[in-house]
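Appendix B. Chain record.
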Amino acid sequence: MHVTHYNALLWDSGRAPVTVIEHGIPDPGYLYRGDWPRAGVVINEPVRRWRVSGTDLLPGFARAAPIDVFGMGGAGLPQKLGVDPADIWVFDDLPQRKMHAELARRRVYLHPFRCTSLGLSLLEAMMLGMPVAALATTETVEAVPPEAGVVSNRLDVLAEAVHGFVSDPLRARRAGRAARSAALARYSLARFHRDWDRVLGEVAR
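Structure tokens predicted for this chain:
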């Protein structure tokens, strides 16, 4: 069993049957306000996970727009990155409900992960109604439709997207609504439960 087609592709042994049941997450609700002209990103342990999570890319994106980093273990991150603390704010280990509310105040969601099958924080941001700027790695290209944001492996393209969304609140809001619609259609808990019921019913026969 895999949660993404990317995982199924990379981990297929060629011997065992493979089934994909994509992620399903609770809907946090449409909370998007976008009143802070900053980019939000969620990275747990950004120093330890450095290149895997794309932490090393943040200074480049911070030149396009200020960045707010949410997650566990982010204390001292601006100093470790060698950037002005005004360019990268850290909100360390907020309770999830508070994090969602704060994240949704940011104008755009940045997803700089080089390697993760499909970050749940990306799906949560989409359900919050945030537009997305994301690396085109792993399963992200399947999760984020073109109308919901910009997905690319060109850092200049993503930096331009971040700046563009931060500079244009109406464009950001439109893309965020498309992101929410896409995430609800594909990654809802109802769909997740239906898929598991189907598979368990087949196995139990």
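Further analysis of this model is presented in Appendix C.
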